[in-house]
Every structure is written in structure tokens, then in C-alpha cells.
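Model it.
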Amino acid sequence: MDTKGLRRKANCWWEIPQNGDMRVPAYLFASQMLIEDMDEKVREQITNVACLPGIVKAAMAMPDAHWGYGFPIGGVAAFDPDHGGIISVGGVGYDISCGVRTMLTGLTREEVQGKIETLMDALFYRVPSGVGSEGKIRLTPDKLDEVLVGGAQWAVSLGYGTPEDLDHIEENGRLDGADPSCVSDKAKKRQYRQVGTLGSGNHYLEVQYIETIYEPETASAMGLKENDIIVAIHCGSRALGHQIGTDYIQELAKAAKKYNIPIRERELVCAPIRSPEGERYFKAMACGVNCALANRQVIAHLVRQVFAEIFPKAELKTLYDVSHNTCKIEEHEVNGVKKRLYVHRKGATRAFGPGRPELPEALRDIGQPVLIGGTMGTCSYILIGSEQGEALAWGSACHGAGRAMSRRAAIKKWKGSKIIADLAHRGIIVRTASYRGAAEEAPDAYKDVTEVVNATHEAGLARKVARVRPLGCIKG
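Modeled.
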């Protein structure tokens, strides 16, 4: 991205000043290197978001931002329902509530290293992955509606996990406001056999070890120690979420015309929050969130079963489960007054600081864990939310490395079989349902996650707590 026209406000914080049709300025959080490498389309898209009705303070792009549908991936925007605020499919994304759950195991790297291949084979067998993958749970229409309303709480009620898990999941495992009647039959039919499955694309199940601790006191409060083994689960609402997005793109396109909402890009179709169309989309989106939370809960249960068989002394506890693609009703301070805003995070992670009532009691004094996935060949990070980040960006942070190359370009450049062999030579065991998928997810197809996380840290959005590296990874 050309930095001409950008105003540097602080370290890793840039501004596109309000001009033309923009109702607010746009913020870009990035280092000099990341901003220069950022797609010019990000500037265009985040400027367009800044023109939407009811937007508060600024349209924002996180350090991993890249071109997306409507909003850039890595886009954040909050809308005030009392001042004509809107809700947008493009501000949530198609993989509704795609997110990461990190689990502590109580094991060390030395205890797991010698059995890593056996462990990855067992996990690959037990947790279905790949395009169109199906699990053992078979749902009737009525039972699926229970999933869409109950989320992870539904899964726990059936024995998939423990009540303690729910304390460490956003929204305690269930987003209020879900109404299955707002979800199409087509979307539901696509989900009857997909609860408890990983899917494809950038989703993964990874066995990691903690390599570096940056904040010892915070890490200790989170239960993290160097060389500990943790497990990360990254997936979302599968076909149901995608179909909800497809259905409501059409419905909100009609609404945008009906309510004469000025949009500068057709992919930004939206509806007023307080309109029948806007309310229906929020209720359907909440169903997608709950579907994803149930999905990760069931997968976590399957992971526990595998570990219990291979490492009987292992005790897997949920550190945290956080979503990336959501619209949440949250209370934030606006000009000294507490307001309930509709915060869109598309490829961005909630990162609340200490004291927020939404956080589990065990973590409330330190803040919310922020789980940042890298690539299967590099590293990932655990951060902690901050009060500074709440004031600056509605308590939001990056969500991963962010793609630097399209999937099509990646499969032209790399062969999946060679990537897997190279990673095995480095001691990283990969199991995948598709060599093509492995090529699409080549580590070099992504930005430098360390650069992204450092920019997030330097901007004050969230603070680094630990760096983790993969021992084994399952890809769809």
C-alpha cells in the first residue's frame, strides 16, 4: 500500500483522514513493513466501510488485514442502533464464528515427542476433516434447532465436555438472540452431519508446545509454562454459516435499496439494525455462532478421548475459546457515555482488557486470552487483551498471520506432498485430507505472523504472553 495520504498517529497506528463521503476516519494498525505490503484494496474497502450509516469513531483494519468480501479480512467497525446503525453480512463473513479454542494438557514436550506420530494418526482418525467432511452425530431438524439455540451448552448437556468448559468460552458458549426460524431449510440440511468436524481451508487441529514466555506472571495466571503441550482447534460453523451468508447477501441487498442506504460497493449490502431484515440477519447470524461453538465443543471432546487413550494422565482444560467472524452487542464508552454497540469483527479477535464482566472469574483480573494462529510451519501466539486496546479499537486485535498469496497462486507454486515432507523433516507431523489443501496452506503463502503480532503488541491492541510452535497439525 502506498503510504501517501496516510497520517501516522502513533507507533503501528495509521489514519486515513475523514474526507468525501466518509462519516468517520479509518484506522490501520500495522508496522511500516506490513502497511507497505498491504493490498491497496484494503485502503479502498476500509474507506468504504467508513461511509456506512451509524458507524462510530472509525473503521479499522488489523495488522493482518487483506482483501475480503465487502469488509477487508481483519476489519472492525461498531455501529450505533440509536443513530441509524447498520448490520452487514460483509462485516461478519461467511464462516460465521470461525475461531480458535486452546486447551491445556498438563503434559510436557518431552512426554509427547516420542508418541507424536501415534497421537496425530489417532486425532486424524477421530476428528473428521476435509471438504464436506461428516461426523458421527446425526441430527434431525428439531435437534439441529437445539444446536442453533444452545451452542456449546447443548453439547455439554449431552456429555460432550464439562460445565467448566463453558466458563472459558465467549458468551459462556451460547450467544443470545438466535432464532432457527430465520435460517433457511437449505442451510440446515447442509449441517445435519457436520457438527464435530474440522472442515477445510485454513482450519486446523494442532498439537503445540510453548516455546517462549514474554509475561511470566500473566502466563502463570493462565496456566502456561515453557515446554508445556497445548492443543489448538481452529474451525467455524461449516456449511451452515456459509449458507446463512449466501442467503442474507440477497436479502440485505434488497433491504439496502428499500431503505436507501448509500453503499459504495455492492458487497457492503446491509440493513438498519432496527429493521425487520436487520433483526432477522442478526438472529440467523447468532445461530451460526452457536453452531460453531457447538462444533468446537464436540471436537474438544473427541480430542480429550484420544489423549486419554494415549496419555492417561493428561487432563485437558479449556484455556479459552474466541471467535473471529461475528457481530456482537457490546457495551463500550463513546465520548464518556456507555453505549450498546453492534461490533462487527471480520477476521478479527475480541480482546477485552481486565475487569470486563464477560470474562470468566479466573481471568477477569488479567484480561481475555487472545489466540492468534500462525501457520503449520512457523509459530502461533497467545496474547492478552488490554484496557488500551478497548479504548482504541473496541477491544479488538488481529486473528492470525493473514494471507499474502491467494490459494490459487499457492497451488501453482507448491506441491502439498513436498510441503508435508519438508515439515516432517523439521519434526512437524502433518496429516491432511488433501494435498491440494496442504499446498493452499503453505507457510510461505501467509504473512509473517511474528511481524503481525509485534505490530498488534506495539499498537497497544493486545500484549504478547507466549509464543508456541507446532509438533503436529491436522489440515482439511
